[in-house]
Amino acid sequence: MRWLAILLQLLVLVGPAAAFEVDRPLADPAQEARAKSLQKELRCLVCQNQSIDDSNAPLARDLRLLLRERIAAGDSDAAALDYMVQRYGDWVLLKPPFKAGTYALWLGPPMLVLGAALGVRLWLRRRSGAEPIDTPLSADERRRLQALLAGRDDR
After folding, report:
1. 44, 50 contact by CB (below 8 A)
2. 13/84 Cα distance (integer angstroms)
3. Cβ neighbours of residue 94 closer than 8 Å, sequence gap 6 or more
């Protein structure tokens, strides 16, 4: 029974370390350098704001392995990136191209800023055209105020 407890302790201690797999680099240093540079251009689909080179997510690891397979198969940099885009869409690129499908992505933020600036400008223009709060009372308004203060309603 004691051996079972020791085995369980070893599994608990060694299990997480054995589950972590390190990316195996390509045998050719030139191909590995190409893979590393392309990894910096691809977005981790889980993290969304990290490259697959920086991400520790399992999907990022799978994308790194797939990219290395494409380079080892003889794909050029452009062909490897095109393969990834065909498979995952323009979203996989950290710098997506400016084309019809990505107009909203590229033009959306500047349009929002311009819309907000226009809204603030219109609001300020309306606010400056409003009647000031401290305008003096007219003669009729003074007479009515005096009547209200005196306790009678003189409308």
Report:
1. yes
2. 37
3. 40, 41, 42, 43, 51
User: Among residues of the chain, what percentage have pLDDT more than 70?
Assistant: 81
pLDDT(4) > 80: no
Residue 78 · residue 41 · CB < 8 Å: no
- E strand or H helix that includes residue 111: helix 103-129
Q: Which helix (H) or strand (E) covers residue 5, if one does?
A: helix 2-19
Answer for the pair 106, 98: CB distance below 8 angstroms, yes or no.
yes
Helix/strand/coil for 51: strand
Our CA angle for 95, 45, 47, nearest 5°, is: 95
Q: Where are the domains of the chain?
A: 2-95, 98-126
Which of 56, 69, 83 has its CA nearest to residue 24? 69
The tens digit of pLDDT for each residue in 82-118 reads: 999 999 888 899 888 888 888 887 899 999 999 999 9
Q: Which residues make beta-bridge pairs with 42?
A: 93
Q: Which fold has domain 2-95?
A: Helicase, Ruva Protein; domain 3 (1.10.8)
